[in-house]
UniProtKB/TrEMBL annotation:
Protein name as catalogued: Nidogen 1b
GO BP, sorted A to Z: canonical Wnt signaling pathway; cell-matrix adhesion; epithelial cell differentiation
Gene encoding the protein: THSD4
Organism: Astatotilapia calliptera
Record key words, sorted: Basement membrane, Calcium, Cell adhesion, Disulfide bond, EGF-like domain, Extracellular matrix, Glycoprotein, Repeat, Secreted, Signal
InterPro entries (alphabetical): 6-blade_b-propeller_TolB-like, Cueball_EGF_LRP_Nidogen, EGF, EGF-like_Ca-bd_dom, EGF-type_Asp/Asn_hydroxyl_site, EGF_Ca-bd_CS, G2_nidogen/fibulin_G2F, GFP
Keyword check for Calcium: yes
Membrane-spanning segments: none
Location(s), subcellular: Secreted, Extracellular space, Extracellular matrix, Basement membrane
Disulfide-linked positions: 749-756
Biased composition (Polar residues): 178-206
Domain Nidogen G2 beta-barrel: 296-531
One term of GO molecular function: calcium ion binding
Amino acid sequence: KYLGKTPSEFKMIAVLLGDLDNSDGQGKVYFRHDSTPNILGRAADHIRQGFPDGKVEKPTNTFIVTWENMAAQGTSGRGDQLDTKRITFQLVVAYTASSAWAILLYPRNGLQFLYTSIGGERKLLESGFNEGLVGWFWKKQGLYFNITSDDEASITRSGVWVYKIGSSPFFVEIQPGKVTSSPENEGTETRYTTSETLQPRHTTPTPSEPRYTSEKPGLQQRHVPAPPRSAPQHPQIVVVDEDLDVNVFAYNLETCAHNRHKCSAFADCRDHSRGYCCHCRPGYYGNGKDCVAEGKPQRMNGKVNGQVFVGNLPSPIRLTNNDLHSYVVANDGRAYVAISNIPDSVGPSLQLLSSLGGVIGWAFALEQPGYENGFSLIGGVFSRQAEVVFQPGNEHLTIKQEFKGIDEHDHLVMSTDLDGRLPAVPLGSTVQIKPYKEIHQYSRNFIISSSSCNYTITSPDGDVQTRSYQWRQSIIFQTCPYDEAGWAGATLTTQQLSVDQIFVMFDANNHLIRYAMSNKIGPIHSSLLEQNPCFSGRHGCDINAVCTPGEGVRFSCECTAGFAGDGRYCHDIDECRETPSVCGPNAVCSNQPGSLRCECSAGFVFASDGKTCVVDHCQRGSHDCDVPQRALCRYTGGSAYICSCLPGFEGNGRGCRDVDECQQQDRCHAEASCSNTQGSFTCQCRPGFHGDGFHCSPTFSEREKTRCEQQRASAVADSDVPFSFRPRPTVGRYVPRCDERGAYEPTQCHQSIGQCWCVDANGQEVPNTRTGPHSSPPLFTPAPIGPTPRPDVQPIAPGAYLLFAQSGKIEHVPLDGYIMRREEAKPLLHVPDRVVIAVAYDCVEKMVYWTDITGPAISKASLTGGDIVPVVTKELQSPEGIAIDHVARLLFWTDSTRDTIEVSKLDGSHRRVLFDTDLVNPRPIVTNPAYGRLYWADWNRDGPKIEMSNMDGTGRVVLVKDNLALPNGLTFDYENQQLCWADAGTRKVECMDPHRQLRRNIVEGIQYPFALVSFGRNLYYTDWRREAVVAVDRHLGKETEEFLPQKRSRLYGITTTATQCPQVYNYCADNGGCSHLCLPRLGGLSCRCPDATDGQCEEKVL
């Protein structure tokens, strides 16, 4: 209400004026009364520092409010949390029987943002002091300070601001603290100056840790006056410029009650005398914040950046976001690392850098009795720096790695930066690295180690060279500071990492560098090798099993958590199927290897405990706010929400009425008329004046024609009719339409060709808005002024792309010919509460269609940006396949629970079931518009098959039934009339000519394909086990390329976006004269009625 309207007539102290948000659960507001001696003493110290002249009575009580991790309204709901800036600040009201003081505390990093959105407008935050009107007879504005400003320095200003409030009910003594002398404070070194200015600070506290730490003795303070906004003769406010520790008024937030959510889901939280710690439960290991199941293989993903000089070359080879993927078999200590997109110029030399992946081996090394690997000791969050020196050339290279913990897919995330020089290794050379040992020395929060290693280089001509390198490394991490005895590293001061079976290779064909090694962690001076297979790694347990040692060489294998079997063979347990209610009500369970993931259903969000799904009435539409055209519903946590009227309306949010701005003074120019509209108003200059209505000037002569009017006059003048008649344009000539002010109307039409399109303010056509002769003109809304919400769909540039589904999103990868431009891959669409299965593309309207099984629903969105549009939302259970006939404008889909194949118009209307018999698990479906054919696969394990029919449901036949197992993926190549499929059971990709039924193998030995698409000579398929998109050259019969998304999880449907539609035709191009559904068939068409007919439908066969 008062933001932007200060200074005001009344007295006011503003802690922070702005629209702040804590609805995402990260922001918290705490308040309490506190009369403990320590708090009262610290409050008195601050008051004395602000008011050194007078006698200050020690407060008898305080009221403390803390705003922690608050975000600006509208910035915390994007899901990624990457760009959300947060602020923490505090108000302390200290009082006695006769007076009161306000103490405002802004910690280090101060205000991290300057603006919030109020009623759609960007408003500057305000914080400070307003004395109001002063004087008895002649009122004038008193002292006014605002510590926020557009000045960038104010973002990081920290300190304490002290004000005297006085006593109620009149509060006539309100005044800011003054600086008149330099008092001496016991225990601190205090200096008062008037010349120093505040300097910005640039430190970022760890987001997952509390911002308040324990009080440090001997805190160094210096009191610096802040420059006031008023005249310099006014007294100045005291500000403490320090690394302010607000814990002088802190809550005991270091308890499990406040921090249990910071522990791993597989850990217990325990309170200690000074704080809390997280401890992994039995069967899991880690630091409590990151816990993984014993025996379970681990994946690490990350990016590699940096610059590397090779040999004597003067210029470096730059690495930019190269994908790094690692896989560790935890029960035998074997680690595999691969880095992609490595140039030939540096690939051979990178073979020497096995230490790049050595830290991954250390993290999950096979533990000898009484010793622990890196992850057991410190978890998955740490920093590593290694200095490597190669001999005899004395080349130096630095490796910096940040390990960032476990992501939502249970994968560890890391980043690597390389800087330095490597010895030159000729292309085609092989490198063999000898086994080595590495001594690790442990102290709290710090590990150091060093080692040396010998290696041989065998060049392509057979020349062998033996060389060596040394390295030193340091690892920095954070243990729980409250449990001294509980950290294993407290007793393990030294350990030895033994590395052998080292394999390095540069794959020049695929531009991959690969490392593999076996790792064991144990004592330093032990020469006796452990004979038990659990400690040697030669046990034969499944990779998802724990090896438990017994007496002598006896041992047992037991499947790790989330897997079942005899330990020699373990298979994943589908917890979602076995315990359907495991995620609770209003949630969707998604099975993961060894675990599960719970996601809230549409219209629900996680509560603050991160487990319970509560209704979001705003998203669900079950709120009682006024209609969206007048009011905004804002979710505030739990099941609560707030209704507020939009700008231009007034009311309580549940009922909003239009504000007649024309009744308010000075809305328009004096020579303009005001017209009220819903939520707004317009101004128009009166006759004899011109302007925009807000500024009007007299018109002394005929107004100069606008650009639109000039173009219209030119078109009309080019007429061949006699001048004596009213001018009209030449037949076939386009004449622009102008409004009464001479501006281009947003929608323009060319009557002769029967087309309409949208234009911008300059009359330029807006791309992709032109309609045909029988289409209605597009609805065009001029672009709004100011910031707009981020659309669900991110527009993409023209060209050919691969689109693939990955759980709650659809990503796109540009194609350069047949090469995937992996570095340019990015999400097209985010639907975080959905599981997207199949995707299809309409080349006519440039729309992507998809099915999701959580709605369930079929939806669409434009590649050029915009909103998600529901297509089919009723009578669906598990829609898993989708196909489009772009000529007949038809949509086909399979439902594996209803066991049906259905068809409708592209907008979801005129829906009809084509088949509902002899189907068990129908999934992929594709069309052949030129022949009016439909193909689908049924992965029924007892009788898998691929079938064909006409699009009208006639002519159903089984095309393939032999040598099939799990035909998941299906695609049709229009150009070559080839039907291809990917089978996850036979692990093959095959193709056939459906007309002559000639069948051939394309590639064998693949892993677990899910979906398949054809593009030119290539086939592209998604693979569940590799979690990748794989390219196959049909002519060469081999895989040529692999794309691994940055976030690894199962990939589902895949399709392509062609630059133009295939040049094919069928009899339903203009709906074939049918009243409802026109369904093509070989050599003709069928007019069919939808299942829900209105009685006006006529069926016929043509």
